[in-house]
Amino acid sequence: MKKNDWKERLNVVYSTNPDFSYNIENDEEKITLEPAKQSLRVTIDKKNRGGKIVTLITGFVGTEEDLKDLGKLLKTKCGVGGAAKDREIIIQGDFKLKIVELLKKEGYIKTKPVG
User: Fold this and answer.
1) Does residue 80 contact residue 40 with C-beta atoms inside 8 Å?
2) Which of 113, 96, 93, 102 is nearest to 39 (CA)?
3) Over the stretch 67-84, which tens digit does the pLDDT of each residue have?
């Protein structure tokens, strides 16, 4: 029997077609690109952060779990806190050059500092 969950049909009000079937989108997780194919950008940011400086790593293509693993590695190597979510890694403090070096050692050869 087909799963019939009303939450998956929220924006469909009514259909007069007797053969109508709800198209449920499956959000498949992205496949993580290998490090050599990743094009990461490393920037310094302090907007909307109370004047505190953070290092942002953006451009990661892959699963959320792999993003968090990379974020954990960078936070550990820099000895600071941070977060990995919404396809970006936030490292507390100004570690742009150190992070670029660390990423290149890990095989992310297309990494470039911005700004």
Assistant:
1) no
2) 113
3) 999 999 999 999 999 999
Structural domain contains residue 8: no
DSSP calls for 67-80: HHHHHHHHHHHHT-
| Residue among 98, 95, 90 nearest 70 (CA) | 90
Residue with tokens 């400086």: 53
Residue 105 within a domain: yes
Please indicate whether residue 21 or residue 91 has the higher confidence score (pLDDT).
91
pTM tops 0.90, yes or no: no
Question: For residue 85, what is the domain's CATH number?
Answer: 3.30.780.10
Averaged pLDDT for residues 3-10: 64
Nearest to 99 by CA among 87, 23, 80: 80
